[in-house]
Write a structure and sequence with these properties.
Elements lengths: L37 E6 L5 E6 L7 H11 L6 E7 L5 H16 L4 E5 L1 H10 L1 H4 L2 E2 L2 H6 L8
Parallel strand pairs: 2-3, 3-4, 4-5
Antiparallel strand pairs: 1-2
């Protein structure tokens, strides 16, 4: 292959490699950890299940939510996601909620979501606000469900 004189070779990258972070010299117990995600599941009498999530939902915290969300969206009961105390919703969380909404709909139930304005804005930008049935409060989200009950 011949070199093209109009396109000089690119210089080598400056700075440290981005392939791996440098090892930490602090003991594991002294390193900061991701804040814990709090998840709570409550059935409403004669109404939907309410899955309450508190904390940032990102790649580090999503594994704590997955088993609760899978169980809550698996049995055909209407589901309300209470995200009013979720200040950050990353892509992994959005994907999880989209999949849960699809599971709930396949079972002919309803999924609605109570969200704070910042998270609602992100869901609107991605088009998930319609999929997740966004409401301002948990009471509004509960009222918006179809009224299916557990069987």
């Amino acid at each position: 292959m011949t070199s093209n004189p109009s396109f000089p070779p690119a210089p080598p990258p400056a700075g440290p490699s981005l392939s791996a972070p440098p090892p930490s010299s602090a003991p594991a117990a002294d390193r900061p950890s991701a804040p814990a995600l709090q998840v709570h599941l409550d059935p409403c009498p004669d109404g939907p299940l309410v899955l309450t999530v508190r904390g940032d939902l990102d790649l580090a915290t999503a594994p704590a939510l997955e088993p609760h969300l899978s169980r809550a969206s698996a049995d055909g009961t209407d589901l309300v996601l209470d995200l009013t105390e979720v200040p950050f919703l990353g892509c992994v969380g959005m994907a999880m909620f989209d999949a849960a909404a699809n599971r709930v709909r396949r079972r002919r139930a309803t999924l609605t979501t109570a969200v704070q304005p910042q998270v609602r804005h992100v869901l609107h930008l991605t088009g998930l606000d319609a999929t997740l049935g966004c409401c301002d409060t948990v009471a509004e989200a509960v009222a918006a469900t179809n009224g299916s009950t557990r069987t």
